Amino acid sequence: MTVRLHPLFVLMMALAAAAGLFVELATLFVIVAIHELGHVAAAFHYGWRIREIRLLPFGGVAEVEDAGTIPVRQETVVALAGPMQNAWLALSGWALGQAGWADRAWAADFAAANVWIGLFNLLPILPLDGGKLMQAWLSLRLPYHAALRRSVLISLAGGAALTVVSVWPALRGGPVQLNFLLIGLFLLASGWYQWRNIPYLFIRFLVHRSRRSAEKLDAGAIAHPIVVSPHRPLSTVVRLFMKERYHLIYVMNGGRIQRVIPEGAVIEGFLARLRSR
Asked: What three-state secondary structure class fits 254?
């Protein structure tokens, strides 16, 4: 696993250093690092394979090896583990200030920074923690491909809204909120990147799912039927798969069941056609 600073974090660090805000810069780095360590600890608890972590000014983004096959319950716990660190850090800072063990002004700023970072991360915008929670929740109610599309569209709308909020004061003669503008533009760029990568993310989901279909069968699983016509393309059939369910595909012809195909065979057939192109 590698840990890197995102260029946005480097830019904000350079701006803070140029303004002489060294204490604030160090404090932000510690807060972000502890926030991300909460995610990492929870992910390691579940045995996730993390390839890379990129630190941002408000948290981090982890590249997970098994993305798309991780149970929603685990995704929820790992996503909440970061903001939970901000919660206890905020309470600790406030308590230290009240007890006189730390400068009250610094303690108040430290607590406020943690509250802001924790709440900001819960916004339903990818790649924020709230966006991951939203995508996990959608995957319980929609086919996984539809959940990917819906969550990215909502994230793009959220990034656009934050960008508009950052420049709105300038339209009325005030200053542009530079921090919010940079974050809003980053979220828009990230959303656009994820939108373009939906086909890749979905293929990765199918590849991992194909490998684990046999495990589900060995453990026993309740099958959820998908009914299709014999002329329906495989590309549209696999888009009906839900993340937390195992499917049997019923091919209907003239009101009669022509074939019953396990999902693994459908996935293998679809992937084989992709390889042959």
From this structure: coil
The Cα 74–Cα 244 span in angstroms is: 12
Q: CA dihedral in degrees (113, 115, 117, 122; nearest 10)?
A: -170
Quick: pLDDT tens for 255-272.
Answer: 889 999 999 889 999 998
Residue type, 163: T
- Residue 258 CB neighbours (<10 A): 12
Please state which of the ranges 14-23, 183-192, 203-212 shows the lowest mean pLDDT. Answer: 14-23
Q: How far is CA 140 from CA 45, 71, 154, 207, 249, in A?
A: 23, 10, 17, 20, 19
Question: How far is it, in rounded angstroms, from Cα 40 to Cα 50?
Answer: 8
Structure tokens at 40: 């990492």
- DSSP secondary structure string, 49-102? -EEEEEEETTEEEEEETTTTTS-HHHHHHHHHHHHHHHHHHHHHHHHHHHHTSS
DSSP single-letter state for residue 1: -
Query: How many Å apart are CA 83 and CA 53, to the nearest integer?
Result: 17
Burial, 90: exposed, middle or buried (Cβ in 10 Å; 0-12, 13-18, 19+)?
Answer: buried
Task: Please state, rounded to an integer, the average pLDDT across all residues of the chain.
Answer: 87
Tokens 């140029």 correspond to: 18
* pLDDT bracket for residue 218 (50, 70, 90): low
CA pair distance 63, 12, nearest whole angstrom: 23
Measured CA to CA, the distance from residue 157 to residue 184 in angstroms comes to 10
Q: Rg of the chain over CA atoms, in angstroms? A: 23
- Can you tell me which residue has the tokens 């939970």? 84
